Amino acid sequence: MRKHLAVIGTIVALAGSALGGSALAASPTSRPAADPLPPLDPAALREAIAGLPNATVTGALVNVTGSGGQWSGTSGVRDIRTRKPVAAEGSFRVGSISKVFTAVVVHQLVAEGRVDLDRSVQHYLPGLLPASYPTITIRQLLDHTSGLPGAGLGGGDAQWFVDHRFESWTPREIVADAVTHPMEFAPGTLQDYNGTNYYIAGLLIERVTGHTYAREVDKRIITPLALRGTYVLNRHDPRLPGRHAHGYVAVTKDGTTTLHDVSEQSPFPWAEGGLISTSADLTRFVSAIFQGRLIPPSELKEMFTVPKVKYAGKENCNIGPEAGQACYSAGLMKATLPNGLTGWGKTGSRPGYTSGLFATRDLRRVLVYSLNPTGNKDGTEMPYVLKIAAAAFDPDMVTG
């Protein structure tokens, strides 16, 4: 099982002429030769989310699309009081899948000639980083080779989060907290997944465009793709719009465990992890990326190019023939599974919500899932994620 959890750890860290305004690139890019794709197993998908609700996960939804087979299902309840079932079309907090939206906007700005991936953060955002820090390029932000330290704001145990879930910090406050620490490594020499990179990417978008991050995501992605269930809310707006499964955090005190509803919480993670979406919207979004309808081929290539450096962390990039090497591109993550299938995607987590978006490059199979774990991001829901990924992409992940 340790081997299997290492496999899913890689997935869980998951999971293309200049454009103007909300215009979409017209021509799709060429697709590579097909990887081995197992037949879709509906029974295995049903089994992967069976038995909910329980103490670990209260609800789940899974949506698989593509020419290689389609399946949609839910399990558990969307509200532990009413016991109503999870809605397949419900909205959820997508956590770090937000980074993919951010990367797409930055790549659009590159295509427009307004951002150069090889120019520095210091050039675009003077004074944001300490003078003692080395030059860090925009590409190094997007592919997590910046070496920047991580931020500590917004942490805490389960009770802390329940008590402080409506509090928020500005992106600049979060970055300022992070850079009180030394660099982790020299830029470009290693890779380590780090949310600080994408807070800075969001600030870059605002500096270059003169508009809010929310406006740019709406104008460039949400409106053109008609993503009617996707939101970038103000950090003071804790709502979870639309019909949704409630998220809960379990707090144990004096031997008694209580589930606290944390569906409403500050979306302060913003460009790094604050968006809300649906399985249908995320499927449409990833399809538009892979088909070259959001960014042109020259920039889309960056989203499928992984730097040739070692991975510094232990949680990710630890399976397949390139284990220990970088696995993040400028916006996505690459994972080659035991059966040889290569997929690209992203996953995310906020208290009460764990989600994933993972697809083959040719879109023959696209998986979107959302779980409602009670463990406050402690990873106890990972056996469910493992079973879902195995049922969709590689049965050997749980049987091999």
Gap between N and C termini:
10 Å
Strand order within the widest beta sheet: 2-1-12-11-10-9
Biggest sheet record: 6 strands, antiparallel
Rg, please? Answer: 20 Å
Number of domains: 1
CATH architecture: 3-Layer(aba) Sandwich
Shape: globular
Looking at the structure, the CATH topology is: Beta-lactamase
The top-level CATH class is Alpha Beta
Strand content: 15-25%
**CATH homologous superfamily - what is it?**
DD-peptidase/beta-lactamase superfamily
Explain what this protein looks like in three dimensions.
It is a single chain. Helix 3 runs antiparallel to helix 12 (297-303). This protein is α+β, with helices and mostly antiparallel strands and 400 residues long. The protein is globular, with a radius of gyration of 20 Å. The chain has helices spanning 2-14, 42-48, 98-111, 121-124, 138-142, 158-164, 171-178, 196-209, 213-222, 270-273, 279-290, 297-303, 382-393, 396-399, and strands at 57-65, 71-76, 91-93, 190-191, 248-253, 256-261, 276-278, 310-311, 333-336, 342-350, 353-360, 366-373. A hairpin with a 2-residue loop joins strand 5 and strand 6 (256-261). It is built from 14 helices and 12 strands. It has one domain: DD-peptidase/beta-lactamase superfamily (Beta-lactamase), CATH 3.40.710.10. The chain has a 6-stranded antiparallel sheet, sandwiched between helices.
What's the gist of this structure?
By secondary structure, the protein is of the alpha+beta class.
Features:
single chain, about 400 residues, alpha+beta, Beta-lactamase, 6-stranded antiparallel sheet, two-stranded antiparallel sheet, 14 helices
